[in-house]
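Okay, is this right?
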Amino acid sequence: MGVEVPESALRLAERLVRPRWGGIYPAPDFGGRSLPNLGVTALARAGGRPTPTMAPPLDPEYLVDAPEGGEGSTQVVFLLDGFGWSFFRAFLERARSPAHRRLAEGLAPRTRPLTSVFPSTTSSALLSLSTGVAPGTHGIVGYTQYFPAWGAILNTLKFAPPWGGSRDLAIARGFQPKDLLPTPTVFGQGVRSAALTKDSFEGSAFTRILYDGAKFEGYVSLSDLSHHLARILSQPRARRPGLVWVYWDLLDAVGHLNGPHPDMAVDEIFHVLQAFVSAAARMTPSDREGVHLFVTGDHGQVGVHPQKARAAHEDPRLMELLQRPPSGERRAALLQAREGQVEALRQHLTSTLPPDWRVLGVEETMNGGLYGPGPLHPELKARLGDLLVLAGEGASMWYRPPGARGPEDRFLHGSHGGLTPEELLVALVSVPFEELSRWEG
């Protein structure tokens, strides 16, 4: 028998997934229940100074029983890629072994649902967490997106064409993070900061943008991550970072390749969280004092099926109506029509797509706050295009340039980027390291 989700968390989840967009979809709650709010809260609890353009802090309900932060404390923010609310519930429900149950019983009262951002994708969500602003403000609004300055669609994690090319192909040697990101990160706001992530990410353009102002710390394995984290947090209080950002990507990778199967996700979550428990247990009580851990995700996942995948390049009329190839997400495609062809494009889509797909005007989504309350990035409309296409249940839209071969030919059975509750709702754990250390068997 598993561990039950507290009733208060279930009620909050029900509120967060109520239709708020077009009477159909939930939407990010940027007022205090989304990833940017968490970034701002971590900064403020570490004694930093949020800027006027940043989002408000988290709603107080997320910090019940959390000790006060302030100067001298350390806020550890762990982004477990793909840690959706549905995966967290599965983790509790499947708690059978003594070690798993002990961890689940510790997590249950310390975890609440939170909304990600739109699009519910890694590049947009991670930047919202590290800047404290919504995607419409920082300007990264898709896994692939059009950049007017390059006149090209680029992969926003690799800054290279989405169909190939080496990492950072589009970035010059003299690139500075401020060249692409108009908003500062939380790491440059008066707090010593560290970023603990895969060593292979060191020096990439996205890493430099994401962690601008933080000291990079690389790891090569989960045990390596645990030991590095304990070392960083065990420094004398005067040298210990006030903010520590940690990232792990393999939960999302497992879901993409195999589909969002709960058993696989539960195993991955257990091993990763145990590494944090182990790090806390190795530290002395003095070292753990003033250290608080937040664990969250950038999005959830839904299963998608090959028979429901729409290949845009196999629709001649669609391609004829487009000014540029589709960008965005497989679950939330962005389309730019040729001049004067917006309505023709909309009509073609609505007449050829299944009835559970949705076609929305981009200006409608911008004005309605789907990308955040503003101030909006000056290039936002140009980056988005004219129409947003939200795929139906189990469906996706993809594009392959003529002659291209490679990863695009491998079907991914798990996906995200859209507005369904499974994609948008993530888990947020809030626990002091002192309590975390007691969860070890």
In short: The first strand starts at residue 74 and ends at 80.
